[in-house]
Amino acid sequence: MYLPNGIWKICGILNDMGGKQEIQMQGQLGEMGLIVAAHGSREMKTTREIVSLAAHIQEKKKSTFSKVRAGFLEFGSPKIGDVIEDFIREGIGFIVVFPFFIASGTHILGDIPSLIQEFQEKYSHIQFLVTHHLVECQGIEDLILYQIEKDLALFHPVEQL
Fold first, then answer.
1. Which of the residues 75, 129, 140, 156 has the least number of beta carbons within 10 Å of its own beta carbon?
2. In a domain? residue 69
3. Whole-model pTM?
4. What pLDDT sits at residue 126?
5. Residues of the domain holding 41
6. According to the model, what pLDDT value does residue 104 have?
7. For the chain, how many structural domains are there in total?
8. Segment 106-127, tens digit of pLDDT
9. Who's near 86: CB < 8 A, 6+ residues apart?
């Protein structure tokens, strides 16, 4: 899907990139940074979960992404825009934004594309890629079913008296 001003939206970049394709993309676009973009919450536990997820992705994909950070839209810190500014200061030339949202809504359809468009206009030398959100990602149903099966295996029904 094409978004305004050279911003591309694709699904599965974290799962589908591998081998030679991954190396070629880095060579063409320079250092890559990934932002796990979340709504944010007033609950610190929620913020810590997203920050932890970003750290785990960094560990698994350090050959692909020079930097991986969480960024928050409404609640929590750092804000997505602050992470973008940090990445640009740190020499990241290609910024991937993964909207960590379950389904389409105002943030997916308007807020995130508008924010990225503003930065694309301000920093025309930086490439931006906005991936699909969770429900649109290929294989999400397999992940959900896997987790349900795993949890069911641990479930021990309580006998009724």
1. 156
2. yes
3. 0.77
4. 93
5. 2-154
6. 87
7. 1
8. 888 888 999 999 999 999 999 9
9. 69, 78
